[in-house]
Each structure stands twice: as structure tokens, then as C-alpha cells.
Amino acid sequence: MKKSLSLSKVYRLLEPGPVVLVTTAGKGKADIMAMSWHMMIEFEPPLVGCVISNRNHSFSLVKATRECVINIPTVELAAQVVGCGNTSGRRVDKFNTFGLTPVAGSLVKAPLIHECYANLECKVVDTKMVATYNLFILEVLKAWIDPSKKHPRTIHHCGKGVFMVAGRTITLPSKMK
Ligand SMILES: Cc1cc2nc3c(=O)[nH]c(=O)nc-3n(C[C@H](O)[C@H](O)[C@H](O)COP(=O)(O)O)c2cc1C
Fold first, then answer.
1. Which of 62, 89, 137, 175 lies at a CB distance of 3.0 to 4.6 Å from 57, suitable for a disulfide?
2. Structural domain of residue 141, as residue ranges?
3. Distance CA 39, CA 51 (A)
4. pLDDT average per 10 residues of sequence, the chain (177 residues)
5. In-domain check, residue 177
């Protein structure tokens, strides 16, 4: 028998791809936030929709600079991800606090996180839904990947501090890209 699920918990069923770390550059100070509410919108140029709450310091920085980096961590960085998701750049220098290494990007001022296996340099291309949903549409301008990580064990948020760790992969015939 199935049971009714509280609507407040629906997000836990649909929580999408890997938890990522979004980096932004303020005036001389960079910030990092954890983000799991993102979705692909277009193959090429790659467009990504991201919900960044207006309570977050990162919101002001993305809005002001119109750019950021989406850094994709693997399970080894889980503690740092949770740390970045539970502190604010208004009070904490997260690169120092969580022992992460900033690396200069090629097209944006926001830093890449060296320890993450992939880094996507992005610019904001559409803010029409920011006022209503805190939803930014980003275009990925440049993508970096660590080729040594063939099966990166990304983490996927199930809510309340519970994460699934990416595991077995299977390959099936598909017409999809
Ligand atoms: C696993 C996880 C996922 C999160 N996903 C989001 C998200 O998708 N959007 C969002 O606005 N905040 C999300 N947060 C919360 C922010 O990361 C958090 O509010 C952070 O403190 C913001 O930092 P800032 O004030 O330095 O920008 C998430 C936190 C965690 C731990």
C-alpha cells in the first residue's frame, strides 16, 4: 500500500542531477554555495536553469556580475559541500574555511574550484524568472573536465542531509545524444 506524501517532501523524489558548488566573484572576495536545484534546458549552447534563493549571498553576486562557475564535486568533497551549503559568504571565506583551491577561469571572473572534477564557466543569459522564482538561465561558455575520473561518484541530495552517491552505470541502445 502506498501512503500519502507531504507536498513539502516532493522535491526529495525529483531532486535532479549532482549537487554542485556555484562560485561567484564579489569585490575582491569569492563565494561558494551548494546547489541541487538545476536543470539542463538546451544541448548547445548548453543552457542550465538554476534556482538561487534571494536569501543567499550568491544571489546578489550572480545578479550583479551576471556570471558564475558551476563546479561539480565528487563524494570525497561531501563534507565541504555541506559546509558551503550551511554557511554564508557574508560571514565566511569558504575557500579558506573548507580548504578549497580557487583557480582563475578563462572567460569569467568567478574562480573555478580545483578539487572539483568538472567546472563550467557560465554567464547569465535570461533573468525573466528571477523575480518570480529566483530562476536564472545560464549559458555554459567553457567546460573543464578531469579526464582521469572516468566514473565520477557525484552526490545527489535526497533532503535533510541524505545523499545518494552515483554508482553503477549501464549503457543501452539510444537515439538520444
Ligand atoms: C545539498 C544542498 C543543496 C542546496 N541547494 C540549493 C539550491 O539549489 N538553491 C539554493 O538557493 N540554495 C541551495 N542550498 C542552500 C545554499 O547552499 C545555502 O543557503 C548557502 O549557505 C548559501 O551561501 P551564500 O549565502 O554564501 O550564497 C543547498 C544547500 C545544500 C546543503
1. 89
2. 14-165
3. 9
4. 84 80 92 96 94 98 97 97 97 97 97 96 98 97 90 92 90 85
5. no
